[in-house]
């Protein structure tokens, strides 16, 4: 049985997978969700964060288990799992993109964000004085990530979101057909997404075709507090 490795996106940590990871484990799956450097409980300084550092963290997780793995990346995590696939193509059964960046060779998260005319993210960012990091405005984060999560869950999420380093957003993916291109890709598009718009999602999975495209009736971060639809789809795709 493959191990499912869950890779979170910007401003979040492994905590965002708690509901899904628990439910997958109850279904008999082996699941790992760990903080990327500088996120969640990891205290790596913001100025030390790089895309390569994120990728090496995922590679270390892959190397810590035996057998094939499934990488599921959310949002910016899509860029991370894509680059990790370059280094461990022989270990990865599938790459799953959950409302995630799906880059082509030479593209960065910043490049993709600039193509997304319908994203609410740019208008809700707060930047550090030196522009080395940025944060989602806690007063308006609901409009970007958590529109369908309810007030109590929104308060919990706000208390856990952290600043994000700018550097990794500008770093470009270095991908090849021989490695990244050899792995099955599945895209899960979120129909009510205001962070990475459905239009950009469609553009990405059209330019980099996936074996399956699955539509979820969800906002960008619905799964954090209600993973039922996502769970159902994953169990269908990867029976325990």
Low-pLDDT runs of 5+ residues are none
Count up the helices. 9
- What's the shape? globular
Give the radius of gyration: 16 Å
CATH class: Alpha Beta
Secondary structural class = alpha/beta
| Count of the separate structural domains | 1
Quick one: CATH superfamily?
A: Alpha/Beta hydrolase fold, catalytic domain
Q: Report the mean per-residue pLDDT as an integer.
A: 96
The beta-strand count equals 9
Order of helices and strands: EHEHEHEHEEHHEHEHEH
Helix content: 25-40%
> Strand fraction band?
15-25%
The CATH architecture would be: 3-Layer(aba) Sandwich
Describe the sheet with the most strands: 6 strands, parallel
Strand order of the largest sheet: 2-1-3-4-8-9
- Gap from first CA to last CA: 7 Å
Keywords: Hydrolase
Protein name: Alpha/beta fold hydrolase
Domain AB hydrolase-1: 4-205
GO molecular function: hydrolase activity
Provide a brief overview of the structure:
The protein is an alpha/beta fold and 240 residues long.
């Amino acid at each position: 049985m493959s191990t499912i490795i869950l890779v979170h996106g910007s401003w979040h940590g492994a905590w965002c997978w708690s509901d899904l990871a628990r439910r997958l484990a109850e279904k008999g799956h082996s699941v790992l969700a760990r903080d990327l450097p500088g996120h969640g409980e990891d205290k790596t300084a913001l100025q030390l964060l790089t895309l390569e550092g994120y990728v090496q963290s995922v590679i270390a997780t892959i190397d810590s288990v035996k057998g094939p793995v499934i990488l599921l990346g959310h949002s910016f995590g899509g860029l991370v799992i894509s680059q990790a696939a370059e280094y461990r193509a022989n270990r990865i059964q599938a790459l799953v993109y959950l409302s995630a960046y799906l880059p082509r060779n030479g593209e960065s998260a910043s490049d993709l964000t600039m193509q997304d005319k319908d994203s609410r993210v740019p208008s809700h960012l707060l930047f550090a004085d030196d522009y080395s990091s940025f944060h989602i405005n806690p007063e308006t984060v609901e409009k970007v990530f958590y529109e369908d999560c309810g007030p109590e869950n929104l308060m919990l999420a706000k208390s856990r979101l952290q600043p994000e380093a700018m550097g990794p957003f500008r770093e470009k993916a270095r991908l090849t057909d021989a490695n990244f291109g050899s792995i099955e890709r599945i895209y899960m598009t979120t129909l009510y997404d205001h962070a990475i718009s459905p239009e950009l999602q469609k553009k990405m999975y059209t330019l980099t075709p996936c074996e399956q495209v699955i539509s979820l009736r969800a906002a960008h971060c619905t799964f954090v507090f209600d993973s039922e639809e996502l769970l159902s789809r994953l169990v269908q795709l990867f029976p325990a």
